[in-house]
Amino acid sequence: MRFDTRTAPLLLAAACLAASLHGLGAGPITGDDEAREAGIVQDIVAGHWLWPRFNADLIPDKPILFHWIAAVPCALAGFSETAVRLTSAIAGALLVAWTTRFGIETLGLGPGVAAGALLATFPAFFGRTCLARPDTLMLLLLAAALGYAFRVHREGRPRDATLALALLGLATLAKGPVPPVLFACTVVPFLAWERALGRLRAFVTLPGVVAFVVLGAGWYALAFAGWGDDFVRQHLVGRYLRNLAGGLAKGEAYSPKSLVYHATFYPLHLFLITLPWTPLIVAALVRLGRGGFRQPLVRFLVCWALAPVVVFTPAEYKLRYYLLPCLPALALLAGPFTAGLLTGRVGAPRATRWSMIAALVLLVLGGLGVWLPLAHPGILARSDQATLAGFLAAVPGGGRAAAAIAGTLLGVAGAAVALRLWGPLVALTGTLVVGWLVVGAPAVASRNAARTSLRELALTTRERFPPGAPLAFFGEPVRSIVVYVGRPIPSLRRRPERIVPGLGVLATDAAYTALAGDGHLGAVLASGSGTVGNLERGTVVLAEGR
User: Fold this and answer.
1) Among 211, 280, 311, 454, which is 20 to 30 Å from 496 by CA?
2) At 453, is the pLDDT very low, low, confident or very high (cuts 50, 70, 90)?
3) What is the DSSP letter of 523?
4) How confident is the model at residue 452 (pLDDT cuts 50, 70, 90)?
5) pTM tops 0.70, yes or no
6) Which one, of 476, 504, 534, 461, lies nearest residue 55 by Cα?
7) Are 21 and 14 in contact (CB under 8 A)?
């Protein structure tokens, strides 16, 4: 097969999809967020396709385009981790194909392929393709909408504006008001930078507005009609107003954290979410500073990359993955520079004073980046701590072996920088990243499963208390258990008097000890330790009421 403008996007997408499918079912559903999405999909498969709920209680905290699509493989092949995550994997592969195609059209074959490869090998992006979340679907639709928006600026065709608004409506149906805000915060600053705000009306067509309203806002009307007050309380107020206004929504302080924290969180985390390609992207942006920012495409991509920082900074809750919409734009910005490094003549290795200084800086910063997490894992976010713990468990020799491996790789990278072997360094980094995504990450997920998953407890519970047998939580439901039991499990709300003989009860170990001591529960039937929230760990006990 010839590697050209048509086949290159398809080949990269196929490779990305194959890598995603390889580890798609490696990790069980553990955290509250993914469990909620999976439970909504289960309820749609059960027949509640328009107004589904999780555990017969919670409504979706996002619109349900993702859940509708994810329900198809679950209905055809049965519910499993692979089936419920398949939509994310396909959307991620299609986004890689779109990024490659857009890059080829605007930058050329080599830079376009490099941009697609960079996007596919961002671990932050690849990790979302292996989760039952609407993020990659939204990213695909938003990126396509922005691509058509740039075509409107370049060619002025109304058809492109209509397609951009229709895709934006679908993106809204996937993740609510976030995509339209990101779209506006990209297009309007770009036109202002171009001194072409008067052209804003070219981005609006009547068919496009109708499509956007029907696809995006139409769901909100149906949701309010079906869920009523629950939709206002849980979705509009509990999700969006609470996140944006923080404590102000309840008449309290906006946030317990400082304004400096809120102002710097996303700019600093841009350097983390783009690893391991952060130095490459920084170097590409420095090179573009020599006149490259006069180009309309570069300006458009810069506005696109900065839009999530601007949009999400005011919100109280800060999550690194909110920066995912930056990644296609940053990959496209770095595509030409990356292609030049990979296709340029290597030549004889030659060290200079500046390359030696760069190598020393790399070794010092890289050494600190390895030593600090290993010596003081508490400085990491809790999700990163879990990944590090799983990695150390999967590596024979634990922390010392991991440090030795990291030191060896740093030494090789430092030598390549000192000798100015840029192309081989990029190729080596890409090879290692692909190896991690295909082999390392699934291995870590499998190791973490034994430590974090309550799947085995849930399956035992389903066997002992099949459909029709009474079963309840004492306290807050553990969402992953609900998913694997496969049916709604009500809560007794910590009211012991509601425990009756024959009732299966799931409770924390502390609650079980107290209830058994008071004669409410019998002997332990099963127990398991793992994740009981998004990251919190605990032990859950199954017993029967006396």
Assistant:
1) 454
2) confident
3) E
4) confident
5) yes
6) 476
7) no
Distance CA 433, CA 277 (A): 10
- Contacts (Cβ under 8 Å, ≥6 apart) of 539: 508, 509, 527, 528, 529
pLDDT tens digits for range 215-268: 988 888 998 998 988 888 887 776 777 676 666 556 666 677 788 888 888 998
Retrieve residue 302's tokens. Answer: 């810069």
Phi, psi of 70 (to 5 degrees): -65, -25
Three-class SS state of 57: coil
Determine contact, residues 94/140, Cβ cutoff 8 Å.
Answer: yes
Classify residue 42 as left (phi > 0), alpha (psi -120 to 50) or beta.
Answer: alpha
Cis check: omega of the bond before 177, within 30 degrees of 0: no
Nearest to 524 by CA among 539, 507, 541, 500: 541
Could you please report the per-residue DSSP string of 24-53?
Answer: TTTSPP-SHHHHHHHHHHHHHHTT--SS--
Percent of the chain with pLDDT over 70: 95
User: What are the phi and psi torsion angles at 439 (to 5°)?
Assistant: -110, -50
Give the contacts of 408 (CB within 8 A, at least 6 positions apart).
none
CA distance 436 to 70: 27
C-alpha 374/C-alpha 385 separation (Å) is 10
pLDDT score at 247: 60
Q: What is the mean pLDDT of the chain?
A: 89
Question: Which residue carries 């783009």 as its tokens?
Answer: 274
Structure tokens belonging to residue 13: 């997408």
- Is the distance from CB of 22 to CB of 126 less than 8 angstroms? no
CA distance 349 to 419: 5
488 by DSSP, 3-state: which? coil
pLDDT of the residue at 126: 93
Look at residue 385 in the predicted model and tell me its pLDDT: 72
382-394 helix and 353-375 helix, angle to the nearest 10 degrees: 90
Give the angle 76-82-88 at the CA atoms, nearest 5°: 95
